[in-house]
Write a structure and sequence with these properties.
about 170 residues; mainly beta; Pnp Oxidase, Chain A; seven-stranded antiparallel beta sheet; binds flavin mononucleotide
Length: about 170
């Protein structure tokens, strides 16, 4: 089997964030697993590794924001959300951000739109949890095209870390 076949699946890049409140710091991470699931009701899904700090934060919060990364994002932005952990770092410290009606933050730079959702279903898919959320807030933020995963690999020369759903050992 040649698992690199899955690299031809198209996807974008997203920042998923959750603020559980109660004095806890908001958590956020980069994912390529944002999807629109249905339009009536408007639902999206996001799949997050159980070992990512953000996974527990979404479970505790019961809601999340999902922002669409655009082509203005550089590797500093990707590194902040995709290669560091909210366990010991406030990913929103020092960047422009806003807060959705759910209370979850989202970046106000390098993203072209966002949605915010209440979690309506959580599916355990083994290494990851898939959260299905009903969209209660959404907006457009820039006219810059959304960054595709292919653009990330070919133009930014970015790598895929082990916790990404699309990681294949030995091929990044
Ligand atoms: C390009 C890229 C795609 C990623 N896709 C996912 C993904 O779909 N799901 C996931 O759980 N982590 C994904 N990650 C990994 C997380 O962003 C990374 O583990 C992050 O440091 C977790 O931060 P946290 O501990 O604050 O949650 C991806 C990272 C990169 C760079």
């Amino acid at each position: 089997m040649d698992a690199s076949a899955l690299f031809k699946f198209s996807s974008g890049l997203y920042v998923v964030s959750a603020d559980p409140g109660a004095g806890e710091r908001a958590a956020a991470c980069l994912v390529n697993t944002g999807l629109q699931v249905t339009s009536a009701p408007l639902q999206v899904s996001v799949t997050v590794n159980k070992e990512n700090f953000t996974c527990g934060a979404i479970e505790r919060a019961g809601h999340f924001s999902l922002a669409v990364v655009d082509e203005s994002a550089d590797m500093l932005f990707v590194g902040r959300f995709g290669f560091r952990t909210s366990a010991d770092f406030d990913k929103y410290d020092g960047i422009a951000s806003a807060v959705a009606s759910t209370g979850d933050p989202y970046p106000a730079e390098h993203v072209c739109s966002y949605v915010a959702c209440n979690v309506v279903q959580t599916v355990d898919v083994g290494t990851h949890l898939t959260f299905v959320g009903e969209v209660v807030d959404a907006g457009n933020l820039s006219g810059v095209p959304p960054m595709t995963y292919a653009y990330y690999h070919t133009t930014l020369k970015g790598k895929t870390p082990p916790k990404a759903s699309s990681y294949v050992a030995g091929i990044s």
